[in-house]
User: Fold these one by one.
Assistant:
Number 1:
Amino acid sequence: MAFAAAMLPLPVQRGSPLFVFSKRSRGSLSMVPAARLFGPAIFEASKLKVLFLGVDKAKHPGKLPRAYTLTHSDLTSKLTLAISHTINRAQLQGWCNRLQRDEVVAEWNKVQGKMSLHVHCHISGGHFLLDLVASLRYYIFCDELPVVLKAFVHGDEALFNDYPELEEAMVWVYFHSNLPEFNRVECWGPLRDAASAGRSKAGEAQPPFPTDRPRRCKAECDCCFPLQSLIPWPHDFQEERRESAGRPQQ
């Protein structure tokens, strides 16, 4: 099967298309999905387009829902960031977006009085091409996420100017996959560090990060906002695994 070549280590060129044609020893060509994702791992403000969709530029996200939707254009090599009260579904339409699934969506949460940024990436599932390159996609998402976080901070500049303490909020990254080894939640530490150094380097410079994600109060309260997630993807991966295994929830 030609797609089996996707499991072999291949040089990944940033900005390359989703499919790369590689030459076999017998001269035939095999089509290998290469998950291009976000291009250069260097943030360029000139390539970022920001859309404010019905949201106050400087309203604290602990009082009004705030979500980010970030996508990439293969034609222009530019990023589009929508800032709204929920994810911008219109931005995720089109066959190319549904095939590549290279979007990143995020939301601000106040949980027990503390602000945190929750970032979601789709690694695999939906079609078999993504399953074949799940390991590569996980690696690239981890490599590119500092650029994504910088885009959030730059694009929402007015918010961070008014509330600089938000750059100290913890970043929680949800990797969604049908493969257990990539279906996981990671704490990347404070936003300021995660945006500048990524996951591992930020972790080296700081005390160990929490391993349990913040959870909203079960009863109605004033210390958690919003009451429900703005992103309709699984958040409790342990519950998700129990459901997929057909076992009742505890």
Number 2:
Amino acid sequence: MVVDTALYDVLGVAPDASQQDIKRAYHKASLASHPDKNPDRQEEASREFQRIGQAWETLGDEGSRKRYDEYGEDGPSGRAGPTGYGMDEADLDDVFAQMFGGGMGGMGGMGGMGGPPPRRTKKRRRAPPTVIPYSVTLADLYLGKRARFTLSRFVFCSSCHGSGAKAGAPQQGTECYECKGQGSVAKLSSAGGGYIQRHYIDCPSCKGEGVKVREKDRCRKCKGEKVVKTKAKLAVRIEPGMRDGQRIVFREQSDASPLAEKPGHLIIELKLEPHAALTVKQADLLAEAHITLSEALLGLDRAVFTHLDGRAIRFRSRPGAVVRPGDVAVLRGQGLPGWHGASDGDLYIKWEIDFPPDGWLPQIEALKMAPLLPPKRADPSKGYDEVAGRVEDGTRHPKHDNTDGDDDGDDDDDDQEQQQQQHTAGLGRVQVVELQMARLDEFGSHALPPLPAEDEDSEDEEGGSSCVVC
């Protein structure tokens, strides 16, 4: 009695077909599904081509066919060809002879087809780590924080202890039927020009182990996967003074893998969120504080900043100690706390002066205040003649002539004299303008005109090249 007809279905034959019928069906299916015959669906055709080869490997041999009829695909393995995935060299030669009119010996591009397949994947000592980004605020790094969350991860099955087999069954499993214990299978793909390229991938059936637990021997809890998914609670302690990008490692708390002896590490990577008022650089903090013009001139005595722990910081300055825009105060040791013996950072306060709006002071009050303020600076333009705008003297932008005429040095003297006149044309004159304010983001908004295109073919009548400013 045939327990599984999947491989017969691949070749399109009945379970009671003769060996000759199976061989004819194999050749027909191989030719029809070859990747070079199906350029529009090469990847799908490659998988079909591989599956057909696996079917022929089993059904083309009477002994392996009998074992397949009795046990199915998970039954004891049959013969393994050197191609590593279900076809021996003679089978391939037969197929290619029909496709290309000759055997493999006549195909120079098939040199990569020979050679033994790679060995099965060796178990790693530890599974790869898992990195989880975790957002923190600046206050979290300043004060510290404890966080708890639940995560899903794979652990070794407690019932079979990671073997995948039930009690009493072979704990190491049996040789994988798909890869014949190699842990890898060959995949054919077109290399262009009618050539075929072969490369090896981890066997998808045994995941590169080379062995697999038979279905009837599988652990009921993990279904032979060796690992099960579970939920775990994790407590994360963020210590004061930790930094953006710092990693907290939980050893062997990540996923377990059938290809590794131990679970991987779980890594929590701190990602600092931007703060609305503070800038961070290393362990130092920088903040801006706004004070009035009166406070800047007459002294300051009030809280201007609230720190990350909620305490207000009150600044005092004596009258006459002028605070200027851009001045910076520093509080030593008031930045981020040191971590594991490092020194504490500093807190820097950059002062910004809020000037009063226009018209805040009546004219008569301004006259009374004037004697109390520092004297005005002297005007160096007293006695100058007033002009409306830029001074022109008729010598700006003299026309250059780049010819090869005789040069006795007189032209250079004339140019120097013209330049001197340009630089001194405005001496003794002054332009008076009304003060008009602007925004700094307008700076650079006047675009320059495009440069003239350089005409490589333009030449003057003398044969010399014309001068182009570029």
